[in-house]
Amino acid sequence: MHACNTGSALGVRLARSGPFVCDVARRLPGTSSAARFPPHILPLTSLTTVPCLAPDPARAPWSISSRFKSTFQRSAALRSGPMPRPLRGPCSGYWSTARRPPLLPLPHFVTGVRGAAGVVAASSESGEAQVAQSPAGPDAIALDAAAAAAVEVLTFQPLPLSTTTGGTPIHAGSPNGYKLPPLEIAAIVDAPAQPSLSYSPDRKTFLQLTRPPSLPPIFEMSRPELKLAGLRVDPELYSRSKMSYYTGISIVPATEVVPAPPGKCHELVGFPAGSWINYVSWSPDGTHIAFTARSPGGPGDPPRGPLELWLADPTTGTCRPALRTPMPTVPAPAASMPLGLPYRGLNTVFDDYVWLDDDTLVVAVLPEGLMAPPPRPVTPPGPKISDNSAGKKAQNRTWPDLLKDEYDMAVFEHYGVSELLQLDVRTGKAVVIGPPRMYIEVDPSPDGRFLLVTWLERPYSTAVPCGRFPRRTQLWCRDGTLVRELAALPLAEDIPIAFNSCRAGPRGISWRDDAPAEIYWIEAQDGGDPAVDVSPRDVVLALTADDAANKPDVQPRQLASTDLRCGGVAWCDGDLAILFESWYKTRRSVWWRFSPDQPHLPKTVIFDRNYEDVYGDPGSPLTRRTRWGTYAIARVTPDPVTLAALREAAAAAATAAAAAATAAPPADAPTGSDATPLPASGGSSGGVRKVVTAAGLGSGAGTWLLMSGSGASPEGNKPFLELMHLESGETHRLWQSRPPHYEAMGSLMSDTDPEAPLTVEGMSLMLSRESAADPPQSFLTTFHDAGRQCDERRVTDFPHPYPQLRELRREVLRYPRSDGVMLTATLYLPPGYDQATHGPLPCIVWAYPREYKTKEAAGQMRRSPHQFTSIGSTSPTLWLTRGYAVLDGPTLPIVADVQDSETKAAANEGVKAPEPNDTFVEQLTDGARAAVTEAVRRGVADPARVIVGGHSYGAFMTANLVAHAPDLFAAGIARTGAYNRTLTPFGFQNEERTLWQAPEVYNRMSPFMMADKVSKPLLLVHGEDDSNPGTFPLQSERFYQALKGHGATCRLVLLPHEGHSYRAYESIMHTLYEQDQWIERYAGYGRLDPTYATDDTAVGGASEGSVSD
User: Fold this and answer.
1) Cα 56 to Cα 1081: distance, rounded to the nearest angstrom
2) Which contacts of 653-659 are long-range, i.e. CB under 8 A and separated by 24 or more positions?
3) Given this model, what pLDDT does residue 538 score?
4) CB 3.0-4.6 Å disulfide test: which of 291, 524, 818, 1105 passes with 280?
5) How far apart are CA 121 and CA 127, in angstroms?
6) Is the dihedral of CA 258, 260, 266, 271 positive or negative?
7) Low-confidence residues in the chain, pLDDT < 50
8) SS3 track for 297-333
9) Which PANTHER family does this entry report, sorted A to Z (predicted)?
10) Residue 294: beta bridge partners?
11) What are the CA-CA distances from residue 85 to residues 98, 587, 1057, 1083, 1086 (Å)?
12) Could you please report the per-residue DSSP string of 334-369?
């Protein structure tokens, strides 16, 4: 198909064999619009990738999943695309490959001139760096001869490069559809993940869960889905749409190393072969495994239908269906089950199932006698009317997928309604305990005797998603008998848009983790509006289920209150709980200690700090398993070995303090033996870390907790584990990550006996370890001698996920912005690159701006130079395989220094303190300029070939940068962004003001308003089904039209069936292909795919409706 010209509108959609592409591309200066390079086909080359490990949340106490992928190649992915003829070098003639191995020399900066300012080169009209040549004439020759004595002429050697271009059609017979990126990129992306792990409660075995290929095919993403009240529903499955899944389950002894060899894997058998598996969980005592199975629905598979619940015996690996037999109370045959299913299907739109005790499940199933969904009326019953005659103020952000009319409401109800069954997994007896309702949560008490049940009710709304619909929460006995109604919340269309806003009435209704059956919740005293000045702002209330059942008139008791917005409670026991409160405007966070069983006692402050200050982050307390299977704060019992080490540390600290006292300290220095400067690794709040004393930690009295944190410091993150004395605030570091590794402590693994005391001596935790060269692996670590000795047992042994990039160079850079704010970026250089030999490279800058309240917080280091490089399916680091430098994640802080601004505002009565976005453009461009300058200063980035890109808010950033800083970047790539802030008038990102409160800010931050100033090529990519608030596809469509209307070089790619993030194999591959061609064309080496059609490469011109990708 031919490319579009600039004469028509957006054009027409291509067939579903590919994405919708619009292109307005200026001709490259100095080249012909009909320029073509003859193809040269590469020999087949095999590149392999292998897996690695990362944490993965699961129902089991501790789980592991791989974030990398093992060797798997589709035949199409290994087919190379056509290769252009060798590119013209910076001087006359061509670089000759003479049909030698397919390596392309670096075409730019082959010769440079180094003077006092570093490497300098002139740029040609085409953007290629040229060799400085002497002008004609004797004066110029003399001048050149004089200059030769003052400069050093360097000759850079070519960097070996692949010559592949990509462009191979993914589907045969669809040359204008989805296409593959270059082979070296596809080989890393196209591979399935390694298995996940889920440990049994006794930690003696684990489930090894097999994952499918990482990228599902587009036909799976294209299945029908319903967009209802902010949800996306699969109408065939009665579940959320586009769920991921497992393809197999094996039971493996915990002593094995993952991936376990086949001989050690006991696979579950007895369920339908080829089924897709979801919702895997252990029973509390580990004697049962529950999971759901469904048909893939491919050719030759059974029809797709609601998920079926299965049970497995961990000792034998045999499986059986849980709800194949009709309920005893229903005499009808199995064939009369809802929708004609031979089993009782689950409804997992809102909830699925939960263990009530070791042998009992509560399951959300399709109601008995459920009929087909209601048909859409042939003619509309009437107009759609929204009314605000009462003049009620209700501001909302741009929510997606809202209900539109009564028909939508009926469909929403049909797919959301379920019944609750109580199922005895040993006998198979199932009893209905909850009639058909829109159940959204069923939460059993820790002891299994009661249920907290919540469901949605009418009236529904067309203005807000279902999370704000009316809801009712009740306390039931386990048999479904009503005990008490706890909340009946009305429709909430008017929650303020400001941060720290919340719903009025009880919220966060849940069970205490440390008690058998006690409910707690939070209630706002300000009506949920942070603008209301009231004290207290929130209260925490509690009620035991037994009191509610036996004393009808009993009222909840108040446990605590907060003056900031309460963020919840972490429970330990009757004597200890930690209350969290915070306030966004000031970034203040306060932790309080209180006694749940004696609420009349005053609460005491543990930490009061700025939560943006990562250097002062004290970490979080570790939790341990309780006798009910919940998780509560781990209280540590002193043991003789640890106590001896602590007393030794206290004596050493006292000696050091006495020695220091003999010197004359500065007048403002802290005094006493209980305070030392905060170490670089982080620790307690306030900038001071209290060391061990004989009266504190060394006494063995009081409350000991285990605190685990990131250990942020100017040298990088160094995660730590330390012992904390809650009463004095003293800490003793048990362990800390050390170079050249990056390590982090995970869950406690020595808590299998909930009644046994937890001691540091013999304590076991899961440890993750990685380095810049080696992927993360897990180890079971056991502590001895207060952490001075540790035993390890390897848990995983995943090979390197992309060995072809093992020798990549990674460096964390620190450099200042013009106003002194320190910035951070990670610089990646391709394997084999040497700056002195190869010179500057084309560079990709990929970023995401963030807001901060202070310059000090904005400038803190938040990464580690020793972390492994994780390459995702759309990561910019994929282009290391193509010979590019990558500046990943340069910090672009948008700051409003509250101290300075509030002081100035106080001095000028009536003047409001400025907000970060008041100077968004200036700070964004300043940060970007600092990043590019640093990369160029180091001699690794060619200033004429820097391309900028980002996703979501990063796309918004990209569009602003190509508009406001065109001198920095050769081109931009903006994926799934928002470009016109007037279309998000009630706030966006961290902006709380509305369009009418800050119209200048909204307009100035909108790159749409600067479409006439965009002078650099911009690629726009967007998922057609983006459901993220504020980034609807309309944003990219309108921005593209605005750019095109002003003659900008631009291209729009819309990906069918994709949301805010892209998932389908075809979508990911084609996005990478589009990005690669854009980079090569405007900022790279010029390895162009001849089939990459644009309006200036089409022969004879064509209408936009016949656009080709």
Assistant:
1) 39
2) 653/691, 653/692, 653/693, 654/693, 654/694
3) 98
4) 291
5) 11
6) positive
7) 1-16, 26-152, 327-328, 332-335, 669-687, 898-899, 901-902, 905, 1098-1109
8) CCCCCCCCCCCEEEEECCCCCEEEECCCCCCCCCCCC
9) GLUTAMYL ENDOPEPTIDASE, CHLOROPLASTIC-RELATED (PTHR42776:SF28), SERINE PEPTIDASE S9 FAMILY MEMBER (PTHR42776)
10) 276
11) 11, 57, 37, 18, 10
12) GGGSGGG-SS--B-BSS--EEEEETTEEEEEEPPTT
Give the DSSP H or E segment for 1018. strand 1018-1023
Q: Which two tokens stand for residue 582?
A: 């915070």
Which DSSP string do the residues of 754-809 spell out, in sequence order? TTSPB-STT-EEEEEEEESSS--EEEEEEEEGGGTEEEEEE-B-PPPS-GGGTT-E
pLDDT score of 953? 97
Distance CA 480, CA 434 (A): 6
Per the CB < 8 A criterion, the answer to whether 727 and 606 are in contact is no
Question: In whole angstroms, what separates CA 478 from the centre of its chain?
Answer: 37
Ramachandran class of 508: left when φ > 0, alpha when ψ lies in -120 to 50, beta otherwise: left
Buried b (16+ CB within 10 A) or exposed e, 438-467: bbbbbbbbbbbbbbbbbbbeeebbbebbbe
Q: Which residues pair with 777 in a beta bridge?
A: 769
d(CA 55, CA 778): 9
Candidates 344, 345, 363; CA nearest to 354 is 363
**Contact 989/953 with Cβ under 8 angstroms?**
yes
- 464: Cβ–Cβ under 8 A, 6 or more apart, which residues? 396, 399, 402, 491, 492, 493
pLDDT in tens, 9-33: 222 223 345 676 776 554 333 333 3
Q: What's the pLDDT at 911?
A: 65
Instruction: Give the span between the Cα atoms of 1017 and 970, in whole angstroms.
Output: 7
Angle at 905 between CA 900 and CA 911, to 5 degrees: 145
User: Rounded to the nearest 5°, which phi and psi values hold at 610?
Assistant: -85, 115
Q: What is the dihedral of CA 692, 694, 699, 704, to 10 degrees?
A: -10
As given in the structure block, the two tokens for residue 641 are 């070995």
Which own/partner contact pairs does 520-528 have at CB distance under 8 Å and 24+ positions apart? Answer: 520/559, 520/569, 521/486, 521/487, 522/566, 522/568, 528/495, 528/496, 528/501, 528/502, 528/503, 528/504
Cβ atoms within 10 Å, residue 281: 19
- Cα 362 to Cα 61, 277, 370, 428, 1081: the distances in Å are 20, 19, 20, 12, 58
User: Can you read off the two tokens belonging to residue 922?
Assistant: 């200036």
Residue 668 confidence (pLDDT): 52
Q: What is the pLDDT of residue 111?
A: 28
- Indicate the residue type of 342: P
How many angstroms separate the Cα of 612 from the Cα of each of 859, 877, 990? 11, 28, 14
pLDDT digits over 567-596, tens only? 999 999 999 999 999 999 999 999 999 999
Please tell me whether residue 251 adopts helix, strand or coil conformation. Answer: strand
Catalytic residue numbers, as ranges: 952, 1026, 1060
Q: What are the angstrom distances between the C-alpha of 600 and each of 522, 560, 604, 1043?
A: 18, 9, 12, 65
Instruction: Give me the residue label for tokens 């580690």.
Output: 864
Angle at 16 between CA 14 and CA 18, to 5 degrees: 70
Instruction: Assess contact for 867 and 739: CB atoms under 8 A.
Output: no
| Residue 260: C-alpha distances to residues 252, 510, 530 (Å) | 7, 38, 53
Residue 878, SS3 per DSSP: helix
Q: Is 348 exposed, middle or buried (0-12, 13-18, 19+ CB in 10 A)?
A: buried
Residue 972: predicted pLDDT: 98
C-alpha span between 557 and 753 (Å, rounded): 32
Best CA proximity match to 954, nearest among 1050, 1078, 846, 844: 846
Cα(558)–Cα(540) distance, rounded to whole angstroms?
6
Omega before 259 within 30 of 0, i.e. cis: yes
Tell me the C-alpha distance between 344 and 323, whole Å. Answer: 5
- Tell me the whole-structure pTM to 2 decimals: 0.84
What is the rounded CA–CA span in Å between residue 250 and residue 208?
5
